[in-house]
Records
---
Amino acid sequence: MRRGWVLGVLLTGCAHTVVLDSQPPGAQVEVDGNLIGTTPVSFVDHASIRRTYDVVLKLPAHRTKRASLTQQFQVTTLCCPVFLPVGWELPEEHYTWTLEPDDGTKPAVPGLTNAPP
C-alpha cells in the first residue's frame, strides 16, 4: 500500500513555468486554442511526461506564427516532490519567436519564382 502512494507522488511530477515571448513583444498568445495573454506571457506546465502544446502568436501588421512546443520528459520532474521540501525548484523555460512584418505579399515558397512563364 505504501509503495503505491510513493509511486503515485513520484509520477505526479512537478509543475514548472514556461515563458513565451516574441520580437516584437505584445503579440496575443493562444495555447491549445485558449488565449492566455500577450507576450511576454507565462503558463504553468503540469505534465511530467512528454506533452505537445499548439502555440499561435498574433500581432497586428505581422504574420501569424504557429508552432508546436513539445515539453520533454525529464527525470527531474519525477523527483520534484522529493526535492521541493528542501527548496529545490525547476528552472523556467523560455521560448522566443521572431514575428515577420506582413507587407501584404505571400511568404516565399522555395523553388518558385515570380518570373513570367
---
Amino acid sequence: MADYTSKSQQRLIKAIAAMAGRELDGITPGEVGQKTGMSATQVTAVLANLQIAGWAVKAETADGRWRLTPIPVRIFAKVAENFEQARLKIMKTEAYYLNN
C-alpha cells in the first residue's frame, strides 16, 4: 500500500491544533514548537503558509504571537451547526414515533 502522508501537511495540522483556543492572546512560535515538536525553521514555514492561506495572522503583540483567523473557526462552527441540525432531526423523528 502506498504511503500518502506528507510531513509538511502533518505539521500544518499540528500547528492549527496547537493554535486552537488561543484566539484571544495568541501563541508564540516557540510555544507552537514546544506543543508540536517542530523546529524553529519548521514553525516559521508553517506559520508563513497558514498566513498565506489566510488561516493565521500575527497578533499585534510585542512577543510575536500568532492566532488563527475566523476561517478555521467558521469551519468548526459549521460542523457544530450540522450536529445540532442532526440532533433536532432525530428529536423530531423520535417524537413522531413515540407520540403517535
